[in-house]
Amino acid sequence: RTWVNQYATPALGMHRADLHTLLRQQLPPNCIHLNCNFKRYEQVGQKVCVSFENGSSIECDGLIGADGIHSNVRQQLQGNTPPRYHGYPIWRGVTHTVPPGFHHEEIWGTYGTGQQFGGCAIGSDRIYWFALVNRPEQDPEMMDDQKSLLLDRFGNWHEPIPDLIAATNQTDILRHNTYDCRPNSRWGEGNVTLLGDAAHLMAPTYGQGACQALEDALVLSRCVAQNSTLSAAFRQYEQCRFPWVAKLQQLSHQLGSVMQWQNPLLAQLRNASLSILPDGWSDYLTGINAVFGHQA
Ligand SMILES: Cc1cc2nc3c(=O)[nH]c(=O)nc-3n(C[C@H](O)[C@H](O)[C@H](O)COP(=O)(O)OP(=O)(O)OC[C@H]3O[C@@H](n4cnc5c(N)ncnc54)[C@H](O)[C@@H]3O)c2cc1C
To answer: Which sequence ranges form a coiled-coil region, renumbered to this chain (predicted)?
Structure first.
């Protein structure tokens, strides 16, 4: 359990669609162009020429590659290094049914052998939950009824887990495989840089992928304000961000593997150690103090 108000900045559960809406509202009209798949860039003097798969191209002052997990901008900078599969998919759901006794001020997780379940509140009337189960990347169960599958796996776990699954509409349950990349410091050149998953795809162990993309944007905007050229700003941003997010990529990978241990003896040892330690110690050992206490 992590109490959301125990750090300098309280943790906040937010629905992705709400975040997108808030961000979009800050943009001037007509500045988002859909169906323009980035293909390649070329640096021409102080400009960057960007070409798209639909045959169009633009010349601009700088390029920030924020094109996610399979980033084409990253591929051009770093070569083709496909993300590695973590060994488990994540199921996610949101429900309006708030079970009695649910603590709105905590983020919690329960760990078993090769599977885990957790959640947090989104505002006062919704609950977000997630479930992880060790499965192969090409899973024959992929096409089955996912809600029944989860109820089979977690139906006898402690409350409110079975209630949360049962209260969620089948169509509101998402399933995605999880991947990460090894840290690679080559984020940019000239007037080109990377941001978010394109720069530092990480396992979702701490729920930090989107949070770190937001921190990237904050630091990048500071660097642009402090430097007279984009290339100087981009290099300062990369030097500032890389050490921290590289550490987070490694921590997320290591802790993610420990929390999904399939060996029952190891899983029991892990759970016993975490449950006998005072909260402060377990937060320290699991890296939660370092992650939630970090100031960008
Ligand atoms: C199951 C799961 C649970 C997660 N839970 C959390 C969580 O609790 N908290 C958290 O902070 N993070 C979480 N994350 C991570 C989070 O989703 C990502 O880190 C975040 O979305 C990264 O944002 P981004 O903008 O870098 O990339 P994305 O959100 O992937 O956006 C990339 C954009 O680029 C576009 N694009 C892709 N290719 C091209 C191209 N060639 N040309 C043009 N556009 C392109 C895509 O369409 C997309 O719009 C989770 C991830 C997963 C998979």
So the answer is: none
| Domain containing residue 173: CATH number | 3.30.9.30
Who contacts 207 (Cβ-Cβ below 8 Å, separation ≥6)? 107
* Ligand 1 atom showing the smallest separation from residue 208 Cα: 11
Same-domain status, 281 and 175: yes
Count: domains in the chain: 2
| Ligand 1 neighbourhood includes 13 CB (under 6 angstroms) | no
59, 188 Cβ separation under 8 angstroms: no
**How far is residue 160's CA from residue 242's CA, in Å, rounded to a whole number?**
39
Q: Is 66 in the pocket of ligand 1 (CB under 6 A)?
A: yes
> What ipTM does the predicted assembly reach?
0.98
> Cα–Cα distance between 204 and 135 in angstroms, integer?
16
Q: Rounded to an integer, what is the distance from CA 53 to the centroid of its chain? A: 27
Q: List, for residues 6-29, the tens digit of each pLDDT value.
A: 777 777 899 999 999 999 999 999
CB distance 247 to 205 below 8 Å: no
